[in-house]
Design a protein that fits this description.
Blueprint lengths: L3 E3 L34 E7 L5 H10 L5 E7 L4 H13 L3 E5 L6 H9 L6 E5 L3 E3 L3 H8 L7 E8 L10 E2 L4 H9 L26 E2 L2 E2 L3 E5 H7 L11 H11 L3 E12 L8 H20 L5 H38 L7 H9 L7
Parallel strand pairs: 1-4, 2-3, 2-5, 3-4, 7-12
Antiparallel strand pairs: 5-11, 6-12, 8-10, 9-12
Helix pairs in contact: 5-9, 8-9
Amino acid sequence: MSKVIYLDSKRRRQPPVPADPPGAPPEIETPSPARPSRPLVTVVMVSYHTGPVLEDAIAAVLAQDIAIELILVDNGNPAPVTAGLVARCAEDPRIKLATGHGNIGFAAACNLGAKDAQGDFLLLLNPDCVLDHGALADLIRLIPKTAHPWVAGCRIVNPDGTDQRGSRRELPTPWLTLVEALRLDRLAPNHPYFRRLNQHDQPIPEAVTQVPAVSGACMLMPVDDYRMLGGMDEGYFLHVEDLDLCFAMTRMGGSVLFVPQVSLIHYRSTSDASIAKVEWFKAKGFTRYFRKNFTGLYPSLFLTAVNCLVWLYFLMRLSSLARTAVTDRLSRMFRRAKGDQAADPSDVEARKRGRKGWAA
């Protein structure tokens, strides 16, 4: 894979530059930076209108104390951001960039980045996640040598240090989704059939623990295991593809591991992508996930009812977003009338932190 790959919307290489005409003076080659040794870990980071935290995420990856390569997949960033990524790529031989293909979805972008991975391990890392120094080396060191195949995630925390939900969770089944959506767990809190999806409010284990699912914000696995699974299912555009991968890993007889000794900060909702579109893709992803993995295991009528519940939740979220938008607009109009043009930063941050659903 070249340092910068320019792709069109069909992920084909652009036509090669024509050769120099006969008789043209030879081009003087400038020395290129020394190539790094073969990386231990390939980090794939998919970026779409991420925001300023992208620079912190890149810097944290490059500061790791093991041999890495960083493959940035530009899924349609603004032109100035893309230009900055091209410049970073030219400065550091460990960085490669795929750009020009537009927004092909998170799963497809992960597969695009992983296609030419040179490392023994593959880390899928969100562009709004900042690794602690030494986190990658610790993750690899703590994985049991007997685990194969495997995928692992770490403890994910908010900027204030609190545990973020989703870093360890149950695999959603149609029944558990119904339990979560209707909060049926309140009927029998300790019953295994009424357990909640997210486990962030449970005591943190002291050692590496096998769990049903980890977050796609940070997924480490051997490159060969990722390819054996066939990568991410590109039928998912955004959200749920990580759960589907964990489901596939379990079905293949592999292990899904949670490593509590390692943590990272996840700055959620830094992208300026439409929240309504994100919720649409999440609902669409869950209906695909249920049809793909549970058809024949649940009565078709029950599956249809759960999928209807997913779309009902989506409509409720749209209604909530619309009310919030109207309230914000009225608030801004009121402030203008009072001559106060400044927005309250705490309100903006609160709205960003509110971009999550029952299965986020």
